[in-house]
Every structure is written in structure tokens, then in C-alpha cells.
Design brief:
Radius of gyration: 48 Å
Structural class: alpha/beta
CATH superfamily of the largest domain: Histidine kinase-like ATPase, C-terminal domain
Distance between the termini: 134 Å
Shape: elongated
Number of strands: 20
Strand content: 15-25%
CATH topology of the largest domain: Heat Shock Protein 90
């Protein structure tokens, strides 16, 4: 037997469709009350979360859903009265299920009107217990956070509106800045800035930085109520709503005055310690210089006094003249080593092959260190070009080798190697550096260096040798040469095993410059020329003028660069050469040379100096440099070179 086909919704009357709709809703209790508040209808949603079936609840008064305390307060009657008088009742509150459990609801009651009279009420209830739990937890969290913020006394924690006006204030802000909330809320936060910071626009920059970078952080002085200044650490973060719109700023300030004062005291103590260490180092340096120079001056002065005695034989005269010359040479080396350590030595860099230089030094090294020590030289790659002062390089290598020899009084072995490397390791607290370098290693199997000594070996005049057995300047020259050449020197040592010195020099490109052979200049190749001598020191100027005249030169001597320019402007054609000191009051010799180069480009210039920081840092700017103290042969070589260039 065929069952009848189900009806379509369109076949139902409107009232039937509405009843089906209400009955199908499960998330809302939707039902009718009569005029007295008795339940007249009941849907699936009402049964689901209130627990009553329709048979159990229809005809019962809706007040049974209320808690006992709400019934005692007359809440059900008040709800119907509000709906009747105001046309609607809406509220949230606790309700009770059939099993006695409570749940939080959102309730709407609307009067049902027919022919102008209220015949009942439509009631919609939703279980929002879960939402209430979340809201309660959020409110509790916010309450605890407010208590936390308000309870913090070491930090000023408060908010600004988008214009920078204070919108709330915690106990820490009051304790640190001394304003009560009533005094400060609504005022612009720039009131906490010093007058000079306000004038410089610091408050606006702080907010702009917070907006641009997401945070502003800094330390500066701020002002309490009453004008007292204090040091503050400040954080400012922008606050935005869900749409990304700026609604204000969160601001945290901490009083760090005590910390700053303590740090300043530490800094003062550190500066005092550094100053004491500087004075100690200066004293040690001065004492070392005085000791060594007094030794040299003893030889020079005694020799000069002896030469004044009448009736000296030529043999004795020659011996004491040679002693003066030799001692002057040792004094030159001493000042050169001092300047090298201080990185103030005027270097004359050129491209050379490290391997070629080391092999040319090998015979000299063997002679210097004696027969009990063997030397092995190994160059790992074909060409190891560097740009450095070759003379200073050879001196540095010899100084390291002599140090190795002295660590092996009973003999041993020194191995010298050179090869390319792609960086410099971390040395003496400095970070490692990458780049193309040539590493020259000098390894010995001597006594090694104790850790305490190792930390001081590059200090000038520091030595573990007996008195008069060493100046303590050899390794300081190595250090200064390496640093001034944009390189480094490292040392590793194990007591009883040996020591390795590694000199790092930047690699160079191009061709090596051939090493010129030393030669004595013949007076005959230096023709008579007219020289403008510029020297501010009377003793040196008088001596140099006399020496040049003895060499057959025509000399005009002036004491400063301005006087030299005045003479040149008047009679430049009378001069072939300007021979000028570098360090002079007013215009320096380098500045004079540049002016001559601009105004009279064909006029030759020779610079001379015992020391100049400009020369050490920038070089001779293309001019020939004759270092003081210069020898007769050095002076002749300079004059001869200018003749060849002319």
C-alpha cells in the first residue's frame, strides 16, 4: 500500500510554517506566556537547555525559571510590568534548569497585543553561560591587571591619548613624578621634559619614533613636580585598535638616578685608574728613554770633549769621530723604534715580495743569531706581495728573530714561513677580520713565554733581560709597524715548548719594486744650486745652512713658511729648490709644498722631519722626504735625486 507523499512547505498555511520554524530552533527558548505569565507554548530550544518537556511546563508560571533570591525580590513580576509599560523587557541574569543547575541567560520579553489589549507575552531566552564565563575571566584579568599596574611603585605606568595627553595614572607614576591623578590626567606629557628638551622638540620626536619604529626607548633627564630633575629610562609603545587606528600610547618610566650616579662614580674611578696607568706608562717610557739616551749622550759628549784636546793623533781623532757617528746612528734607531710603536713613524711603503726579502735576509739572520741556532725559511706560494715599508719590515723580522734567539741560549731551531691567508684571528680582545693577508710566521722551540709576560711583551721598554742586555723596544717596533701598515701581529707561546710570532700584512697587487743597492754619492754629481732653506729651529737651521754651503750650494735661510712664500713671490726665479722642515708654527712644510706645487709647479721641494703626525698618517703627499737626523750621504742623495728629476 502506497504511503501518501509528504506535503511541501509551500502547501502549508502561514501559521503552520511559523509553528514549524519556532519548533525547529534549538539555540533559543522561544515560547509564549499568557497575560498572567503562565507558559502557553514550548519549543525544542526551551526543552533543550531548560530541561522541561512541553507536558511538564505548559500552564506553569514562568517564575519557576528564576532563582529563589530573584523571586523573593519580585523580579518575574517586574519583568512583565516593564514589558507591559515600556513595550519591551531585556536583561541578563541567572536562571534555573529543571535539575536545579544555574545558567546565565539573555532574555527578551515583548507584549503580545490584540485589538489594543495585551493578551500575553513573547519570550526569547538564550543560554550565554559560556560567553559570561569568558567575559568574567576577561574582567577578572583586567581587574587584576589594573591592580597590578596600580600597585607597581617602581615604575610609572600610564597611558597617553593620541595627542600625548595623560589619560590614566598609576601609583608608581605618582611616587616617581609626584603628581596625583587629579593633577595630571588631561595634561600633555611634555610637562615631564626639561625646558631644553621641550625647546628642542624631544616630546614630539619620541612619539614620532614610537609610531615609525613601533617603540621608543631612551634614557634622559626628566622633571618631577616642583622642578627636581631625575634620570629616567623611558619606553613608549603605540596602542592601536583592531582596525589599526591609533588610539594612544602606553608609557613606562623608571627612575634610574641611583644607577646613573653609581655608573658615573664607576666611570670616574675607571678614568682615574686609566689616568694612573697612563702616568705609570709615561713614567716607564720616560725612564726608558732617559736611560737609553743618556747612555748614547755619554758616548757622544765624552767623544766630543776628547776631540777638543790638542795634539790628538789622526788615528785617535778618527776613532772618536766614528764613535760619535755610530752612536748617532743608534739614537736614530731608538727614536725610530719609539715612533714605530706609537704608529707615528713616517713610512715609505712600496710593493715588495715577502719571500724575496726573507731570502735576502737569510744570510744576515744566520750571522746575527750565531751558529748554535739553525734557521729554515719556507715560502709556501710563488709570490707574496705586500705594500709596506721594506726597511721597517726587515727590522720587524729581525726583532722577532732576535727575540727567538734569546729564548734559546743553548741553541735551537727557528722556522720562518710565509703564505697567503684569508683573515686575521681575534687578537688581544679585537674581533677577527677577514681579507687577503700575507702571514709571516716565526716559530722557535725555545723556553716559551709565561702568560703574565705574554700580556706585556709589546710594551715599550718592557724586557725580561738583564740591564744593558736589551732596550725593550724591539717587539714594540713590530707592533707599531704592523698596526701602521694596517696589519696585525699575534703571538702564541707554551712555556717550555716554544713561541710563534705571526705578522699579518695586507696583500698587494702589481709588481714588486726592485731593491736599490746602497751607494755613496759623489760630490761631483751634485752641482751648485740655489736653495731656499725653511727651518724654524735656529740650531738646526744654522747647521743645515752651513753644511749646504760646505757642499757648494747657495743658501737663503728663512724661519717660517710665510717668509718663504714672500721671498718666492718676489724672486722665485732665483731658486732651484726649496728644502723645508715639516713641523713649523703656522703653515706646515706640507702646506708650503702644496702651495709651491700650485703656484710654481716646476720648483722642486724636499721635505725633512724628525716626526710629524701628518706624515705618519697621510704620507709625504708625493714630495721627497729626508728623515731627521739625516746623514751627509743622505743629504747628498736627496740633492742628487732632485738633480736627476729636474
Amino acid at each position: 500500500m502506497n504511503e501518501p507523499a509528504p506535503r511541501l512547505l509551500t502547501d502549508l498555511a502561514q501559521s503552520e510554517r511559523f509553528e514549524l520554524l519556532i519548533g525547529a530552533v534549538k539555540d533559543y527558548a522561544i515560547y509564549l506566556l499568557d497575560a498572567d505569565g503562565n507558559v502557553a507554548t514550548w519549543n525544542t530550544g526551551a526543552q533543550r537547555f531548560k530541561g522541561y518537556s512541553a507536558d511538564e511546563i505548559i500552564g506553569q508560571h514562568f517564575s519557576r525559571f528564576y532563582t529563589e533570591e530573584d523571586r523573593a525580590r519580585g523580579k518575574p513580576a517586574e519583568a512583565l510590568r516593564t514589558a507591559r509599560e515600556q513595550g519591551r523587557f531585556e536583561a541578563e541574569g541567572w536562571r534555573v534548569r529543571k535539575d536545579g543547575t544555574r545558567f546565565w541567560t539573555h532574555v527578551v520579553i515583548d507584549p503580545v497585543v490584540e485589538n489594543g489589549a495585551i493578551i500575553g507575552f513573547a519570550k526569547i531566552t538564550r543560554d550565554i553561560s559560556e560567553k559570561k564565563a569568558i567575559d568574567d575571566a576577561l574582567r577578572e584579568s583586567e581587574r587584576r591587571f589594573r591592580l597590578l599596574v596600580q600597585g607597581v611603585r617602581d615604575y610609572a605606568i600610564y597611558m597617553l591619548d593620541s595627542e600625548g595627553n595623560v589619560s590614566n595614572w598609576n601609583a608608581g607614576a605618582e611616587a616617581i613624578k609626584r603628581y596625583t591623578a587629579e593633577e595630571i590626567v588631561g595634561r600633555h606629557f611634555s610637562i615631564f621634559y626639561t625646558p631644553e628638551d621641550q625647546a628642542a622638540g624631544a616630546p614630539a620626536r619620541a612619539l614620532a619614533t614610537a609610531l615609525r619604529e613601533g617603540k621608543f626607548e631612551g634614557e634622559a633627564q626628566r622633571v618631577r613636580k616642583g622642578g627636581e630633575r631625575f634620570w629616567a629610562h623611558v619606553l613608549i609603545d603605540p596602542i592601536r585598535d583592531d582596525a589599526g587606528e591609533l588610539i594612544g600610547f602606553a608609557k613606562i618610566t623608571r627612575d634610574i638616578t641611583e644607577r646613573r650616579l653609581a655608573q658615573e662614580a664607576i666611570d670616574r674611578s675607571r678614568e682615574a685608574l686609566i689616568q694612573a696607568q697612563k702616568m705609570e706608562a709615561i713614567g716607564r717610557l720616560t725612564g726608558g728613554v732617559a736611560h737609553d739616551f743618556n747612555n748614547l749622550l755619554t758616548v757622544i759628549r765624552a767623544s766630543a770633549d776628547y776631540l777638543r784636546r790638542p795634539g790628538l793623533s789622526e788615528e785617535k781623532r778618527a776613532r772618536y769621530v766614528e764613535a760619535i757617528a755610530e752612536t748617532a746612528g743608534r739614537a736614530t734607531v731608538l727614536t725610530s723604534q719609539l715612533l714605530a710603536f706609537a704608529r707615528r713613524q713616517p713610512l715609505q711603503p712600496e710593493v715588495f715580495d715577502v719571500g724575496v726579502r726573507l731570502r735576502s735576509l737569510q744570510e744576515m739572520i744566520s750571522t746575527t743569531i750565531g751558529s748554535t741556532v739553525s734557521v729554515e725559511v719556507e715560502v709556501r706560494d710563488a709570490a707574496q706581495l705586500v705594500l709596506a715599508d721594506p726597511s721597517q719590515f726587515e727590522t720587524a723580522v729581525l726583532n722577532m728573530i732576535i727575540n727567538a734567539r734569546d729564548a734559546m741560549p743553548r741553541g735551537g731551531q727557528i722556522r720562518i714561513t710565509a703564505g697567503a691567508t684569508d683573515g686575521v684571528p681575534a687578537v688581544r680582545g679585537h674581533a677577527a677580520a677577514s681579507g687577503d693577508f700575507v702571514a709571516i710566521e716565526i716559530v722557535d722551540n725555545g723556553s716559551g713565554i709565561e702568560p703574565d709576560t705574554l700580556a706585556r711583551i709589546f710594551e715599550p721598554f718592557f724586557t725580561t733581560k738583564a740591564v744593558d742586555k736589551g732596550t725593550g723596544l724591539g717587539l714594540s717596533q713590530v707592533y707599531g709597524f704592523a698596526k701602521q701598515s694596517r696589519g696585525e701581529v699575534a703571538v702564541n707561546s707554551t712555556p717550555g715548548v716554544g713561541t710563534t710570532f705571526t705578522l699579518y700584512l695586507p696583500r698587494a697587487t702589481g709588481k714588486a719594486v726592485p731593491t736599490p743597492a746602497p751607494a755613496t754619492v759623489d760630490l761631483a754629481v751634485v752641482p751648485n744650486r740655489s736653495i731656499l732653506l725653511v727651518e724654524d729651529n735656529q740650531g738646526v737651521g744654522g747647521f743645515a745652512a752651513g753644511l749646504l754651503r760646505e757642499l757648494g750650494q747657495t743658501v737663503t735661510w728663512v724661519g717660517d713658511a710665510q717668509a718663504a712664500l714672500d721671498i718666492l713671490r718676489a724672486r722665485q726665479k732665483d731658486f732651484d729648490l726649496v728644502f723645508t722642515d715639516v713641523v713649523m708654527p703656522g703653515m706646515s712644510g706640507i702646506e708650503l709644498g702644496k702651495e709651491i706645487r700650485r703656484s710654481w709647479p716646476r720648483l722642486e721641494v724636499i721635505l725633512t722631519s724628525g716626526y710629524s703626525h701628518v706624515l705618519a698618517e697621510e704620507g709625504a703627499h708625493g714630495f721627497q722626504l729626508l728623515s731627521k737626523p739625516y746623514s751627509l750621504n743622505g743629504l747628498l742623495s736627496a740633492l742628487g735625486r732632485e738633480t736627476a728629476l729636474a
